[in-house]
């Protein structure tokens, strides 16, 4: 475990308090790896855990619980084969292809159409791209909006569909210590049951899409895949992360409308429902939300999704 | 001289996480070392313009994530590579054992036309650590592995102390340029991907 390879962001990971901060990170990540052996430890998890140290500056238990909750949302990102990351990259390409064909076409022409350059943004929920002070505003706003969209549509947020795997793998583990048992139980409670056949609200993909669209001119001026990779690795910090999530939500709804029109107003396997968008516009009652998930795969989808969409609703 | 075309050489650095890939790249290109590199997620690259044996070369050095789980995505950047640098930590036997996997994976993913003669290079890094007392892989063992894989050049390096870094990358450049020349001699009309593809297609049709 390379907990020490975390950036010097945040008060608890700087100067004299850094060694203690890194010790805490290591404890929490070790406890998590014990709880969830399928994921174990993976690089990038330190980036996700570090902000939690500051939210709970003294309480490891609370920080651990919060980290389990966070991992519940992004756990699939770290599973072997990176199938879910491929799915998200594919969805990102589909979203930009639908909402900004010129930009998407440009990226495809210069060889960046796989969107692998956005891998870090997606994996770490833009943790390295936004200012340290903005990380939690971004994440909490994103989670709240995702929950609202999910409630409105009757569909699960991105976290769903993973409980079974955790339960299965945990049975093969050696007996847990009382404290671990308690942590494990609390973790299990955070895991919603898998929802077979449903699709998810992947707002984070739309947040990344919004961030990329915010840098549209710069991306259009990139003449090669290499330039895009360098640009993405030194991505300009978004100045207003709440506005970024607002934009993501608008993109989400617009993408849904376009998908619905394209599919003639019917999408099999999706649920019906109405909702109000963030700017208070009442949406049509006929499955406006369901259509927005047209790019998302069913929860039980198998790995090996192609980078350009990959499901029955994928762009041709 | 000034009319000579500048060649672009794409170099891919591979190896387990924490062996010092990012540090080697930064020491070579930017002449600096810090212990504070974040774990590489995805991939990044740096370029350096050099002149070797009277040839102007732009080195494009790709640094990829070392954790095995990320390997399948890192390979998106292997295409078109002119050489591949395999790095291990001399104080970490597993990182040496994993060289086989990294080499095989690179050959599968990058698909060089002549894998047996593709220019690889092995760097045993962190030779400075604890004054050499924590070493787990001897120079002899590393050289034997390199010899068994078709005489891959081997350098012992320290990105931290800047030992052998420049020499290793200069050697890499020479080997890649030599390979390029041999390829040209071998198939004078098929130096770019499109020509090769057309030829292959033609061969398939007839």
Automatic annotation (TrEMBL), chain A:
InterPro entries to which the protein is assigned, alphabetical: Rab-GAP-TBC_dom (IPR000195), Rab-GAP_TBC_sf (IPR035969)
Keyword vocabulary terms for this entry: GTPase activation
Top-rank taxon, per record: Eukaryota
Domain Rab-GAP TBC: 1-146
Coiled coil (residue ranges): none
One function term, GO molecular function aspect: GTPase activator activity
Residue span of region Disordered: 163-187
Name of protein: Rab-GAP TBC domain-containing protein
């Amino acid at each position: 475990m390379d907990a020490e390879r975390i950036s010097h962001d945040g008060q608890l990971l700087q100067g004299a308090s850094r060694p203690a901060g890194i010790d805490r990170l290591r404890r929490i990540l070790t406890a998590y790896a014990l709880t969830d052996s399928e994921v174990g430890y993976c690089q990038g998890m330190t980036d996700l855990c570090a902000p939690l140290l500051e939210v709970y500056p003294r309480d490891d238990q609370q920080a651990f619980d919060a980290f389990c909750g966070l991992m519940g949302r992004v756990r699939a990102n770290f599973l072997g084969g990176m199938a879910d990351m491929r799915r998200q990259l594919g969805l990102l390409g589909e979203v930009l292809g639908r909402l900004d064909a010129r930009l998407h076409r440009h990226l495809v022409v210069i060889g960046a159409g796989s969107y692998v350059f956005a891998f870090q943004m997606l994996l770490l929920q833009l943790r390295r791209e936004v200012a340290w002070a903005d990380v939690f505003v971004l994440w909490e706003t994103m989670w709240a909006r995702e929950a609202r969209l999910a409630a409105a549509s009757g569909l699960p947020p991105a976290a769903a569909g993973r409980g079974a795997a955790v339960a299965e793998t945990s049975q093969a583990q050696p007996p847990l210590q009382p404290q671990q048992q308690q942590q494990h139980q609390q973790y299990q409670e955070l895991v919603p049951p898998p929802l077979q056949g449903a699709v998810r609200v992947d707002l984070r993909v739309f947040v990344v899409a919004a961030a990329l669209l915010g840098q549209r001119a710069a991306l259009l001026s990139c003449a090669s895949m290499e330039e895009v990779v360098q640009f993405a690795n030194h991505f300009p910090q978004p100045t207003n992360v709440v506005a970024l999530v607002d934009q993501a939500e608008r993109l989400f709804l617009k993408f849904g409308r376009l998908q619905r029109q394209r599919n003639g107003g019917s999408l099999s396997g999706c649920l019906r429902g109405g909702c109000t968008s963030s700017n208070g516009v009442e949406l049509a009652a006929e499955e406006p939300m369901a259509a927005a998930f047209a790019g998302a795969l069913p929860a039980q989808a198998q790995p090996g999704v192609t980078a350009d969409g990959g499901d029955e609703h994928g762009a041709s | 001289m000034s009319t000579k075309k500048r060649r672009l050489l794409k170099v891919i650095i591979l190896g387990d996480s924490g062996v010092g890939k990012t540090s080697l790249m930064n020491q070579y290109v930017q002449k600096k070392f810090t212990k504070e590199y974040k774990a590489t997620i995805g991939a990044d690259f740096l370029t350096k313009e050099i002149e070797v044996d009277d040839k102007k070369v732009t080195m494009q050095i790709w640094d990829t994530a070392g954790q095995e789980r990320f390997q399948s995505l890192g390979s998106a950047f292997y295409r078109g590579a002119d050489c591949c640098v395999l790095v291990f930590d001399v104080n970490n036997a597993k990182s040496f054992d994993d060289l086989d996997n990294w080499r095989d994976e690179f050959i599968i993913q990058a698909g060089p036309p002549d894998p047996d003669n593709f220019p690889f290079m092995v760097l045993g890094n962190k030779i400075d650590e604890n004054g050499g007392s924590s070493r787990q892989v001897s120079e002899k063992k590393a050289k034997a592995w390199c010899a068994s894989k078709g005489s891959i050049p081997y350098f012992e390096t320290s990105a931290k102390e800047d030992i052998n870094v420049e020499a290793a990358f200069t050697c890499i450049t020479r080997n890649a340029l030599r390979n390029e020349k041999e390829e040209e001699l071998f198939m004078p009309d098929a130096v770019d991907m499109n020509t090769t593809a057309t030829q292959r297609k033609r061969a398939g049709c007839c």
